[in-house]
Amino acid sequence: MWIGHDLNPWSSYKAMRCLQARMGVSMVRITVSGHPGSGTSTLVSGLMDHYGWSSLNGGDVFRGEAKRRGMSLSDFGALCTTDLEVDRQLDALLQERMSATGAEEIVESRLSGWWAYRLNLDCVRLWVDVEDEERARRVVGREGGTIEEALEANAKRTSVDAERFTELYGILPEQREPYTIVLDGTHLGRDEVLAAVIEHLEATA
User: How far apart are CA 29 and CA 41, in angstroms?
Assistant: First the structure.
């Protein structure tokens, strides 16, 4: 009968995570960030399936706060565009969730990497970089329209968000400072992106 140590790194990892939870340590394993159309949601879904992990999206916090205030999503979205303090409160809620005992293993939002960096969370911080035209093609494939319309909409959203993030925090999501890995997904399929991220996670486990 074998009585040695378990050499499966993921069994050891799971045991460590249980210990961390009991000690009140954040459970975040990876943050996933990228501009719209970069495939972050598809990647998160793949990681959840592969590891059996749970995830937290910045949109979850948005929807939860809208419900708490008794507002429709469209009305709450309009409020966020006119009151930067609401945006600040949402980001504070996301950081609180990330820091909590038993937090989700995956956190997806454009600023989640920055928050993990500033909170000193011991996790992989990923930025998925995809060229503008490829992101536009993906948006068109998902939502319809033309490449030109998608390019214009993406550029406008990026510009508005950049102005807001700069005013609120003096940062931009795509700045390289907070990330432990930047993955160019322009010419990679969803399975290739997932495989690359899994390889990195297991190399750093």
Answer: 16
CB-based contacts of 46: which residues, under 8 Å, 6+ apart? 190, 191, 194
Among 109, 87, 90, 108, residue whose Cα is nearest residue 163: 87
Q: In whole angstroms, what is the distance from residue 61 CA to residue 92 CA?
A: 10
Q: How many CB atoms lie within 10 A of CB 104?
A: 20
Distances (CA, A) of 187 to 137, 142, 190: 12, 18, 10
| 159 contacts: CB under 8 Å, gap ≥ 6 | none
- The per-residue pLDDT for 110 is 93
31 phi and psi angles, rounded to 5 deg: -105, 145
Q: Are 116 and 28 in contact (CB under 8 A)?
A: yes
Residues 6+ apart with CB under 8 A from 103: 26, 27, 28, 56, 97
Dihedral of CA 83/170/37/189: which sign?
negative
- Residues in Cβ contact with 188 at an 8 Å cutoff, skipping those fewer than 6 apart: 196
Q: Read off the pLDDT of residues 9-47 as tens digits, 9 standing for 90 and up.
A: 444 444 444 444 444 455 899 999 999 899 999 999 999
Q: How far apart are CA 204 and CA 10, in angstroms?
A: 11
Which has the higher per-residue pLDDT, 53 or 13? 53
CB 66 within 8 A of CB 73: yes
